[in-house]
Request: fold
Amino acid sequence: MSSEFTVKVNGTPVSVPSGATVAVAVMMAGQSCRISITGEPRGPLCGMGICFECRAIVNGIAHSRTCQVVCAPNMEVRTDE
Amino acid sequence: MNKYSRQRFDVLVVGGGPAGMAAAVSASKSVARVAIVDENPNLGGQIWRGEGSDGSHSTEASSWQSRVRTAGVTLLCGKRVFHQPEDGHLLAEGPDDVIELSYRALVLATGARERFLPFPGWTLPNVTGAGGLQALVKSGLPIHGKRVVLAGTGPLLLAVAAYLRKHGAEIPLICEQTTRTRLLKFGMILLGHPRKIAQSLRLKKDIAGILFVPNSWPLAAHGEKVLEAVTISHGGRSETVECDYLACGFHLVPNVELPALLGCRLRCGYVQVDDFQQTTVEKVFCAGEPVSIGGVDLALVEGQIAGLAATGRTLEAKSLFDQRTKFRRFAHRLDQAFCLRSELRSLSSPDTLVCRCEDVPYSRLREHTGWRSAKVHTRCGMGPCQGRVCGPATQFLFKWNPDSVRPPIFPARVENLAASSLEGQSIPAVTGGLQ
Amino acid sequence: MSKPAYDVAIIGAGIVGAACADVFAERGLRVVVVDRDVVGSGATAAGMGHIVVMDDSDAQFALTNYSQKLWHELRSELPDNVEYEQPGTIWVAADDEEMAEVLRKREYYQKRGVAVSVLDQKQLKEAEPNLRDGLAGGLLVPGDGVLYPPSAARFLMTRAQQRGAKLKLGISVTQIAEQRIRLSDHQEIMAEIIVNASGASAADLTPSIGIKKRKGHLVITDRYPGFLRHQLVELGYLKSAHSVDRDSVAFNVQPRRTGQILIGSSRQYGAEHKEVDQIMLSNMIRRAEEYMPGLGSMSAVRVWTGFRAATPDKLPLIGPCPGYQSLWLATGHEGLGITTSLGTARILVDQVTGARTAISAEPYLPSRAVTECAHV
Reply:
């Protein structure tokens, strides 16, 4: 039922099922979404867009809440800037 | 390019969960232009996230969704309300547009979010909310074969455990902080609610065999860059369990930011409403979790009452009062059975972060006597979550009262803060510099 | 009559009150400070936190320059949470007419020993790549700084307390009398002198002094490190109506150490409520976007308002209050409270103790303001 396609997380291709959110793609890539101001790696906490821990740069847009963004083919996600 | 548009409605419903859908369907019996605005891509809110959209089988969720569709309700999904530029108008933002929404009557069905309590290691990736992990799995996170420890309180833990297990997760244990006595009392409450018994029996089957431990809570999460294990306390002893995810659920907190922004009076942190779900602001109604945390059944009834009352159908609304009373009573007992114990206030060590946006540790917050002082001096609550995580945490830890709300009630693009049909009036740029 | 318990009672624990407490305590006087909220919670918490030299008038220059030097001296003692940075200010000229003003300013500052340099169009773009194309240039003032004001107020207040000053928070002053203030908890404090440093509310207790509230709006974004390097202010006044009594907006942005961007500014007259004014906000943002288009798509985390304490002639009131024997004023700082707090404190304390002030206190004497107000 679900097709798969590729998005890039920090330059590395990750295969995700259709409908998956970018937060999931980052988790599947084994990366953290962001680094906190004291240098801690962080990932999604609330899963529903209110905690802002899942922020990353999606297609050049900083501070995107990745748990609210559905993956699209060839999306570029960066968590390392 | 950021597009600006305006739409007018007879009844505008903010929130597309059970309460919102019920309100919209009820309102559309009488008036033509009804809309639901919700920031998620689909209807269902949190509790019915992803249900019914694939049309696979008939559930309560999909039933309401098709009723919404049949009623011709305008769906504004993927739009997030962030500001009230003037009375009777709301601004909502999408990825590349902003809409100004005006209405004759407004129903706020903004739902609830989870409460997070800090403990050492809680900021590690893969420590999530209970509903949060479920949402992530619904959003495509593979959970098959992963070890998930659930901790916190209430039936939500069991529901999430059942769901995760159905998707192949391995669940070493569920830590429930409440006492055995309270659990037994809760068991007896269920006897008064047949629907609940059926639900819980189904649940029991789904979670059969999972170790369920009352009187227990997380003491610390461990891991280098990601969660590897959790130490839990039970009966005075502690035990460390290896796991891939730790999903914590410490009750729900009502999303009252929009009601507060609109000037609705709050009482004990909930929106004050009359019998017809009307707030203290004329033409503004509120239903579901922001009124009281009460689950789906209560939300559906309150939503219907609000939708009917907003369109003048007071007799029909009244006919639902008894049902509402019944569901409210259950919700109240639920609350009492699972109220948070005081040990949970002492989990943090001095360097445990409480505000995750600004990385403010427990020790710095403890120096302050109230939310305002802490906010101004440590910046706790000034990050993008706008106090949604640290507010309820500090409320429980220190008995602080997170104070008034400012726009935008959700971070929004700078250009959209300027969107408004009040544009006509321009202000001259100043005479010189620093103000 | 028994000797008052304190030498000085200061009303207001904002940056000005805290600075005054610090200097009074340093000189060995017994100080008590009263505030109805927490330290640094009024305009101190609401403003931009800039430390700038201004040339609107010689008196304004003297005070800001004196005070900025004091901040430079204090810098090394400030704790990390004060977040003192020195990004400098660039006064931005949109066209040749405004560039002429840049050259005038340069001459003014250089004559008075303030380091400045003129930036041409290319240099401006290099200094701030995110400004729109086509601007004419600007004046860079590298000595200007920014900090986080509530922490600065707290630092000064704590230092005062270490020298014996007392602090009473959460208590309002309901009445000022000679050598006596009455509090909202029905207590009274006796002091040799009283200092009204209560900012925008100063006129509540001493109506004769003609302080008016001037409302402002600010927006703060999420973190965008590197987008903005200096504080930027427009020189647009040659084109717009010059006014002291009309609502207005101006392009003014500031980088915070956190990488967040503060966007201002606005000025409103006669607005008493603290709710956000959509028209002012919209205009302010649009003005900012004209200079820095990239701001528009940034995530705005918070919008808030604050009230500046404004006097008719844009200079603060520092000195004895006419009509009283024991009341002094340290208020009316408008948008320069953070900058001039340190200078204000010394000028006030020097006057009280009969010491010589480092700069002439004449332009800031309250006696001038009351005379003006008599005609209102």
